[in-house]
Design goal:
It contains 7 helices and 11 strands. The protein is of the alpha/beta class. Strand 7, helix 5 and strand 8 (223-227) form a beta-alpha-beta unit. The radius of gyration is 18 Å and the shape is globular. The strands form 2 sheets. The protein has a 9-stranded mixed sheet. The protein has a two-stranded antiparallel sheet with strand order 4-5. The protein has helices at residues 15-26, 106-112, 141-161, 183-199, 213-219, 235-241, 253-263, and strands at residues 61-64, 77-81, 91-97, 127-128, 133-134, 165-169, 203-207, 223-227, 246-250, 268-272, 286-287.
């Protein structure tokens, strides 16, 4: 496994706002005593509806999860946080942190669904230390069903707001779980999210986890969002699995150069500053091939 630098800063909801959003979903959250686990080797049980449209290969792309702004000329697709509105007239992808808790939401999870946080041997939440995010516990079918009810409400909200797609972040949470989660656990949960997105008329993108690209495509992901695949020489698995429907974000100039040299005529590639700042803010960076 390649050792990575700390990941860029995501847009974070206030604890109060997130508590309000999540509280509205509690009534709809149900658990099953014996739900069936997902098998990513079989066809998805929820076929995409006729409304599901993935982004086109090589579309001009901008990554705005740190805050919205007017997209630059040439941009045809934009990714924004689920708490803000889509960009008019463009292909919009809704960012959802699906496998981990936002840093200021841990208290809400502790108070309302403490058993849905992954815990270590001492009972403390297992953390993604780079982000200060508690991992969600997707280790059992029953917990996956309950989590899918909560995250599914967010996905439905993306559809209601007018997004065309959703990116489900942290498919690779198992890598930060100290062995408590496996790729199979994350993929089984991902399948529930794929079904929910397709039922809502949304395409859904696999976020990171290059090693799982082929399996992700098999369970129903429609495209990929890959951070620093040029920097770490990981673009090929995504490109092969998703027929070049890959949106690449690099955070270092060397990564952009590497991605553009090999994939500049094939994949959608953008360089952003590590804090993903809105245009006009100090430190904002955006370049393309």
């Amino acid at each position: 496994m390649i050792a990575r630098a700390p990941r860029p800063v995501r847009n974070v909801l206030s604890a109060l706002a997130l508590a309000g959003v999540l509280a509205a979903t509690v009534a709809g959250c149900t658990s099953s005593d014996d739900p069936q686990g997902a098998d990513d080797s079989a066809p998805s049980s929820q076929a995409p509806s006729g409304k599901v449209v993935p982004p086109e290969p090589l579309v001009g792309f901008d990554y705005q999860i740190g805050g919205p702004y007017s997209p630059p000329p040439g941009v045809g697709a934009v990714s924004r946080d689920r708490t803000v509105k889509p960009a008019p007239g463009l292909y919009n992808i809704c960012y959802v942190n699906a496998f981990q808790a936002q840093p200021d939401a841990t208290d809400w999870w502790q108070a309302n669904h403490p058993d849905l946080l992954l815990r270590d041997a001492t009972g403390a939440p297992v953390m993604d230390e780079d982000w200060g995010e508690a991992l969600l516990d997707v280790s059992t079918p029953a917990k996956r069903e309950r989590l899918a009810a909560i995250v599914g409400e967010w996905i439905d909200g993306c559809a209601t707001d007018g997004y065309q797609a959703v990116e489900a972040d942290n498919l690779d949470s198992y890598e930060r779980s100290d062995g408590r989660l496996t790729p199979e656990h994350d993929l089984a949960f991902a399948r529930l999210l794929v079904d929910r997105a397709h039922a809502a008329g949304l395409a859904i993108g696999q976020k990171n986890a290059a090693d799982l690209a082929k399996r992700g495509r098999g369970l129903g992901f429609d495209f990929a969002v890959a951070e620093e695949c040029g920097q770490y020489e990981e673009c090929a698995p995504y490109a092969t699995a998703f027929d070049d429907r890959v949106l690449v974000i690099e955070y270092e100039a060397a990564g952009l150069d590497a991605a553009c040299a090999t994939w500049g005529d094939t994949l959608s590639i953008v360089l952003r500053d590590p804090d993903v700042r809105p245009a006009g803010k100090p430190g904002y960076v955006r370049r393309t091939c």
